[in-house]
Amino acid sequence: MKRLMIDMDNCITDAYFMERINEYLNTNYKLNDQKDFYLQNLISKEKKGGFWNYMTTHTFYGDCPLLKDCYETLKILNQKYKLYIATAYLYEESNPDISGINLKEKYDYLKKYLPFISPKQYIFISDKNLIHSDIAIDDRICNLENSDKKLLMTAWHNKDIDDKELEKKGIKRVNTWMEILKELEGEE
Ligand SMILES: [Mg+2]
Fold first, then answer.
1. pTM here?
2. 137 in helix, strand or coil?
């Protein structure tokens, strides 16, 4: 069985990170208007510490929906591949405790919303390239390096990268879970 590594944030769910930033700043930023992967860069240096304190009592995930067709597709892929969910958790120098909170929330969310995937299949990691996979699905190019087949899930921060540039790196863009399912047909 081939090893399939799937990212969590912006592949499985979008989380409530942007919503929390807007709540805290009293702003109305839209995810799709952003270019920077690090949404926290929207927050000024002076307000950052306060924001991370705010996030110790407000949820990143909660009841955030799974992306469309994710549940059904993962159920199919989980039968055909050695499937792992590989996700990095936050680290903030000003508030290191946020890492533990984020980690626990990720664990609880995956367990609740994807109950057919065993916690043994979770990989909490910072540098995903430490692990080789046959197939990887991620919204960051830098996380696809150590995979034979590389699928880039479209997200706000990567949507302007053109297909030619991706092709040079051996990367295929996918926009939906239906596209992923089609792309993986016959791969097993
Ligand atoms: Mg991601």
1. 0.95
2. strand
